[in-house]
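Ligand: 2-acetamido-2-deoxy-beta-D-glucopyranose. Inputs:
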Amino acid sequence: MAGAPVKQRVFRGGRVLVLALFYLSALSNHVDAAVNPTDVGVLNSLSAAWGANTMNWGTGDPCTWTGVFCDPTGTKVMNLLLQATNIAGTIPAAIGSFTGLEQLDLSYNPGLGGPIPPQIGQLTTLTSLIIQNCALTGPVPPEIGNLKNLTFIGLNNNYLSGSIPSSIGSLQQLYWFDLSTNNLTGELPVSTKTTDGYGLDTMTGCKHFHFNNNSLTGPLPSEFGAPPDGIPKLTKLIHMLLENNQLSGSIPDSIANLTSLEILSLSNNKFTGIIPPGLSRLATGPLGSTLEQILVGGNQLTGTIPNFTALNPKLAVVEFSKNLFDPQPFPEWLKSAPTLQTVYMEYVGLIGPLPADVLAYPSLETLWVRNNSLNGTVIIPPVIGPKLLTLSLQNNEFVGFTQTNTSTNMSQIDIELAGNPACDANNVGRPTQLCDQPSGSKLPWSSPFVSNCPSVTCSDSLVLNPLKTGNCNCTLPLEMQLEARRPTFSVITDSLIETLRLKLVAQLNLQNSQVWISTAAFSADGRAEINVDFFSADGVSDLDRASTSNITHSLTSNSLVLDEIKPYLARVIVSGETFFATSKKRLGTGAIVGIVLGVLAALAAVGIYAFWQRRRAERLKHISKPFAKWGKGEGESALDAPQISGARFFPYSEVKRITNNFSENNEIGVGGYGKVYSGVLDNGNKVAVKRAAKDSMQGAEEFKNEIELLSRVHHKNLVGLVGYCYDQGEQMLVYEFMPNGTMSEWLRGKCCAPTSLSSSQFKQMADS
Ligand SMILES: *[C@@H]1O[C@H](CO)[C@@H](O)[C@H](O)[C@H]1NC(C)=O
Ligand SMILES: *[C@@H]1O[C@H](CO)[C@@H](O)[C@H](O)[C@H]1NC(C)=O
Ligand SMILES: *[C@@H]1O[C@H](CO)[C@@H](O)[C@H](O)[C@H]1NC(C)=O
Ligand SMILES: *[C@@H]1O[C@H](CO)[C@@H](O)[C@H](O)[C@H]1NC(C)=O
Ligand SMILES: *[C@@H]1O[C@H](CO)[C@@H](O)[C@H](O)[C@H]1NC(C)=O
Ligand SMILES: *[C@@H]1O[C@H](CO)[C@@H](O)[C@H](O)[C@H]1NC(C)=O
Ligand SMILES: *[C@@H]1O[C@H](CO)[C@@H](O)[C@H](O)[C@H]1NC(C)=O
Ligand SMILES: *[C@@H]1O[C@H](CO)[C@@H](O)[C@H](O)[C@H]1NC(C)=O
Ligand SMILES: *[C@@H]1O[C@H](CO)[C@@H](O)[C@H](O)[C@H]1NC(C)=O
Ligand SMILES: *[C@@H]1O[C@H](CO)[C@@H](O)[C@H](O)[C@H]1NC(C)=O
Ligand SMILES: *[C@@H]1O[C@H](CO)[C@@H](O)[C@H](O)[C@H]1NC(C)=O
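Predicted complex:
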């Protein structure tokens, strides 16, 4: 018994010793844990170059600085994640001196320009290099080929020029290679033609080639599928996005050897020759069939469209539009693709009848066969496909339209028949509704959620989270736009959006009420753009920096699984984090040019709320994307003017002339956006010119989007857009003049808006 207290004492003593040792070691750990001086030096160089002293950089442990993430021992910088932090300037060469950097993400900093320093090639520990949506110029440094552990390159949406360096072909770990939307030129490098023996054809592990939206030339190399040694390497490639380039030559048959390919997008290039029959073999890889989308529209392809159904159980989207095919009957094989969803065959030389059973097809949503020579009668089968939503039949030779089953409810299907003999004015059975259906009626989607706090009005870009009950505070969210580059859906539905929203909530580990999708719409070239707001969990503060960083990096690194919109691209429209003085200002007050007259009818269709959202998004975009690619700046010269089909460009001098030098006599209205003038074109047509006041101007891209929207909307209650002026620093919209003085009445909001808008709704628009 006597021993027990002793033992206890010994034990206690031991514990004290252990504790002391622990504290000592903790202390020495603390000393050891200092980030190595080289890394600290690099951080200081970056701080000097980027004005990063507006962050919490400079004092204390560098591992606690914004965007700096150290390794577990705290001795080196492992990740540098500075997305959407307003850093500006160029990337200093010193960045190459980090001792163990693994992830670098500088995306969404529109002020970050200049070239990527070749010293980036010294960061041999780097696994991901992400600098997207910045303003980088100069070449893609070949030194990136030294970074053998790289798995991810995302340098898309910059102004990079020069060609794709072959050295990157040596990176065997790389699975994501995105250089889309830059100014790249030259050919796709292949090992047989390069001095280092590398090329895109040697990238054994790569799953994503995203090189769309550049100015690349030359062929689609046959070596991709048929390399000189006979062993195809690109067997993991799933997305090959090459649309919107200047590629030429024929599509090689050996593409069929890319046995994992899911999306092959070659649209809007200069490809010639036939669609190789081998492409239909794409379906038969070792893992079964993979091809989901084939897009070859907007080329100069000839011959006929081959039968793609051979073992193609996943084929969902086909786009063959606008090629130089021989006259051919409607490809019957389409109806035997079990998952076929979207078919674009505009202007492909189709002749003969449209087989009725295609419209009964169980998964078909959208069929575009406009601008062909299809003839006979359009026959709607007794039972139509349950998913059919869009049938674009314009400009063919259809003489009639027959619905075989009068009980079929066709109201959910958008059928467009204009430009066919069946729509001739003297045709007795003219199906009026189908003939007068406005085209392109893919309406934007907007959130059905309405805030529970209607009495609160938020100023500027602050938003009341509509998903939050009880907490009625306006906060600044992180607002992003997700772009589905190749959507598998052709119509945006509530359930699709909700599925996406819940995936974002779950995968970002957020609360249900933190993610709100405000609007979604298709762009003119078929992409889908989805606007998402991320709110703070408490509902009363702005979204914090850590969450902003987490969300944006998850998106830039494509680490979210969003099958509906893969592969997606994300843009920051406004960042809600309050770390920087600049973003605290709660953003600009300059109202954008409203669409008072033009959008009146569109508004009635999509709702005031959607419009408000859009306006807000556009205003924010203007602020966060000052480097819009359209035009050099403020439209100083007519040379900057874009080509927009359906809207004519008016030089400033012409507008000045037709409005009598903007004389007071021609003034027919004034609003928050500026003034409206009447004028007479040289052809005698009367127009109304809406001239944006200086402080109401939008960014170039926003202005362009607006014109595109207006020029696409056609409605009987809508004042048509004739054209626009973006010249001499002016932004003006030219509309048809409404007779009988209605136009000025609209402007003053006195009477007779052409739709059933309430006076407060009208005011909201007039103020915009
Ligand atoms: C590359 O990655 C491997 C495996 O993760 C690792 O062992 C190696 O040290 C890395 N190389 C460099 C230079 O970091
Ligand atoms: C990118 O290319 C376009 C057209 O090819 C050109 O107008 C523009 O000036 C280029 N931008 C830069 C930054 O090189
Ligand atoms: C790609 O180019 C097309 C046409 O040139 C353009 O409409 C589209 O906005 C571009 N896409 C991106 C992601 O910039
Ligand atoms: C690859 O494609 C070419 C052309 O279609 C073909 O001749 C060759 O046999 C294919 N190679 C393999 C390994 O499938
Ligand atoms: C298309 O190919 C499939 C599979 O080889 C075949 O069953 C079908 O009859 C073909 N269709 C046409 C219209 O040639
Ligand atoms: C439809 O067009 C085809 C080919 O041009 C022609 O042979 C046929 O007679 C036409 N059918 C009708 C009903 O006009
Ligand atoms: C389709 O037809 C319309 C009307 O004839 C024409 O204005 C349009 O340019 C055509 N589109 C194509 C791609 O040929
Ligand atoms: C006609 O349509 C109705 C409603 O969709 C359906 O119930 C009926 O079976 C159809 N009739 C025939 C003959 O297919
Ligand atoms: C047809 O369907 C729409 C909704 O899709 C519905 O509003 C309408 O009442 C239906 N019409 C008939 C006659 O059933
Ligand atoms: C609501 O926002 C205002 C201004 O942004 C702020 O002053 C107020 O404290 C916030 N309310 C709560 C409960 O946080
Ligand atoms: C950011 O994401 C990581 C990993 O997904 C998670 O551990 C961390 O808690 C997140 N941070 C915040 C602030 O949400």
